[in-house]
Design goal:
Helices cover 78% and strands 0% of the residues. With 116 residues, the chain is mainly alpha-helical. It has one domain. Helix 1 packs antiparallel against helix 2, helix 1 packs across helix 3 and helix 3 packs antiparallel against helix 4. The longest helix has 28 residues. The chain starts with 9 loop residues before the first helix and ends with a helix.
């Protein structure tokens, strides 16, 4: 179990889970995108599916700390930002000013959701 009251609080545990979910999703999408470019590399397809299995397992764990709605907002927002950054850094994708504005809105939205 990730949460131990003497070590970390529930909010920290949830944050770590959401970060791990986002990273796992990013790795899964990166494997699947690379597989799409080189279909002979079936190990990338298998790795992508495994990373998405990890996403599901971590999501189930995260529901111990908050409701499905809040977890989904945090996961979705953070995943969009991580995957957008990965596309730019590793896949030579470009973004427009509207894309940057949208990313800023996601950051603001996450801030509003977690503000307590």
């Amino acid at each position: 179990m990730l949460y131990n009251s003497s070590y970390m609080n529930a909010q920290t545990a949830l944050l770590l889970l959401v970060v791990a979910i986002s990273i796992s999703e990013c790795l899964g999408q990166s494997c699947l995108k690379t597989y799409h470019k080189a279909p002979e590399k079936t190990h990338l397809y298998i790795a992508g599916v495994l990373f998405y299995t990890i996403v599901c397992a971590l999501l189930v764990m995260s529901y111990k700390y908050k409701g499905m709605g809040l977890v989904n907002v945090l996961w979705s927002g953070l995943s969009v930002l991580v995957i957008l950054s990965t596309g730019i850094l590793f896949f030579d994708e470009s973004i427009t000013r509207m894309d940057m504005f949208g990313a800023a809105m996601i950051v603001a939205g996450i801030g509003f959701v977690v503000w307590e």
